[in-house]
C-alpha cells in the first residue's frame, strides 16, 4: 500500500467513528459543523457562538469537542464536519496525499503570552531538556503542533528525540496523569498549563516557542478547499464573525472568560488565570511556507507544496 493509500485509509477509518457527530442543520442558514479542541486558542469561536456574531451573519454553528487536532482531516473526509481547528503540520501530509485543504482563518499567531510549555512532574528527575531521554512525554497528538515543536526544541538543545517516549494524552487528562506519575512530562497549554503550575503538580523545564518568529501561525481554522470555494460567502461571514469576537473579548474580558469556562469545562478560577493569546484572522502564504519548511526538515512531507493552494480569498 502506498503512503497516500495508507493515509487515506486511516482517515476513512477514523472518519467512520465520527459519523455520530452530525447535528441537525438549520435550513435558513449555512450550517457549519466545527470540531474544536477545548483550549483557549479558540476563544473567539466560543464568544462568537455565545454572542450571536455568527448567527447574525446567517451561520448555524454546531461545535463538537475532540481530543486532538488530528481528528479534523477525518471529520472533513467523512462529511461529519465542515470546519475545524488544526495546525499546519497536521494538514500538510494530508495536502501532500491529495486531500485539498484550505486554511480559512487564523486562531492564534506569535507573539504569544506564556501560556504553554514543557512541564515536568514535581518530585521527578526531569530538570532540563536532556533529562527527557528515557522518560514518557505526553502530547495531545503525535505529529501535531506540540509534538513537532518539542522535536524542534530538542534539536536546538542537541538532544536526540529518538530516545524520548512520546505518548498521546488529551489535554484535560494531563494534570491527573502527571500528578499520579503515569507520565513524566506534559506538553500543554492554557487553561491546563496554569492549572498544573498553580497546583504545583509540575514545573516548567523548557520554552519550545522561544525562537519562533513573530507572525508565525500556531493554529488555524481549516476546511476542504472545495467546500471553501463553493461556500466562499460563508467563509467571509465566518472571518467577519471571528473579527467581531476578537474586538468584543478585548472590551468584555469577563464575559469572554465565561465562554471559556462553558466550552472548555475548566473551573472558573482556572479560566480567570488563563492568559489571553494574540488572536488574528488573516492567513498568508508566507505563514504557511514556514510550516512547509519545518515539515520537510522533519520528514513529514517530501514535496514542494505551494502555500497559495491552501488559501481562498
Mind explaining what this structure looks like?
- It is a single chain.
- The chain has 313 residues and is an alpha/beta fold.
- The chain folds into 2 domains: 3-110 and 215-310, Periplasmic binding protein-like II (D-Maltodextrin-Binding Protein, domain 2, 3-Layer(aba) Sandwich), CATH 3.40.190.10; 116-206, Periplasmic binding protein-like II (D-Maltodextrin-Binding Protein, domain 2, 3-Layer(aba) Sandwich).
- The chain is 39% helix and 19% strand.
- The protein has 12 helices and 10 strands.
- It has helices at 3-17, 43-50, 71-78, 88-96, 145-156, 174-180, 192-198, 225-230, 232-251, 253-264, 268-273, 285-297; strands spanning 30-36, 59-65, 83-86, 101-109, 116-121, 136-139, 165-168, 185-189, 202-206, 217-224.
- The strands form 2 sheets. A 5-stranded mixed β-sheet has the order 2-1-3-10-4, sandwiched between helices.
- Helix 5 links the parallel strand 6 (136-139) and strand 7 (165-168).
Amino acid at each position: 500500500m502506498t503512503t497516500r493509500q495508507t493515509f487515506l485509509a486511516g482517515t476513512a477509518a477514523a472518519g467512520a467513528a465520527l459519523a455520530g457527530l452530525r447535528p441537525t442543520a438549520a435550513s435558513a442558514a449555512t450550517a457549519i459543523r466545527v470540531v474544536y479542541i477545548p483550549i483557549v486558542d479558540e476563544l473567539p469561536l466560543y464568544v462568537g457562538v455565545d454572542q450571536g456574531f455568527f448567527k447574525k451573519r446567517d451561520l448555524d454553528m454546531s461545535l463538537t469537542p475532540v481530543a486532538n487536532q488530528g481528528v479534523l482531516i477525518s471529520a472533513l473526509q467523512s462529511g461529519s464536519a465542515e470546519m475545524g481547528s488544526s495546525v499546519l503540520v497536521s494538514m500538510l501530509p494530508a495536502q501532500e496525499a491529495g486531500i485539498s485543504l484550505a486554511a480559512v482563518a487564523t486562531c492564534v499567531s506569535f507573539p504569544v503570552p506564556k501560556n504553554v510549555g514543557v512541564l515536568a512532574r514535581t518530585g521527578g528527575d526531569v530538570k532540563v531538556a536532556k533529562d527527557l531521554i528515557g522518560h514518557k512525554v505526553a502530547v495531545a497528538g503525535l505529529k501535531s503542533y506540540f509534538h513537532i515543536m518539542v522535536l524542534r526544541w530538542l534539536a536546538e538543545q542537541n538532544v536526540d528525540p529518538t530516545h524520548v517516549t512520546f505518548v498521546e494524552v488529551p489535554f484535560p487528562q494531563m494534570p491527573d496523569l502527571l500528578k499520579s506519575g503515569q507520565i513524566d512530562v506534559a506538553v500543554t497549554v492554557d487553561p491546563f498549563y496554569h492549572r498544573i503550575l498553580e497546583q504545583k503538580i509540575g514545573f516548567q523545564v523548557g520554552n519550545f516557542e522561544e525562537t519562533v518568529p513573530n507572525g508565525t501561525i500556531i493554529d488555524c481554522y481549516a476546511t476542504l478547499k472545495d467546500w471553501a470555494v463553493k461556500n466562499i460567502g460563508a467563509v467571509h461571514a465566518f472571518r467577519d464573525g471571528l473579527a467581531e469576537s476578537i474586538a468584543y473579548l478585548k472590551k468584555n474580558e469577563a464575559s469572554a472568560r465565561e465562554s471559556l469556562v462553558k466550552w472548555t469545562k475548566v473551573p472558573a478560577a482556572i479560566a480567570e488565570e488563563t492568559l489571553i493569546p494574540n488572536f488574528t484572522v488573516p492567513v498568508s502564504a508566507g505563514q504557511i511556507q514556514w510550516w512547509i519548511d519545518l515539515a520537510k526538515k522533519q520528514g513529514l512531507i517530501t514535496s514542494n507544496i505551494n502555500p497559495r493552494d491552501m488559501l481562498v480569498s
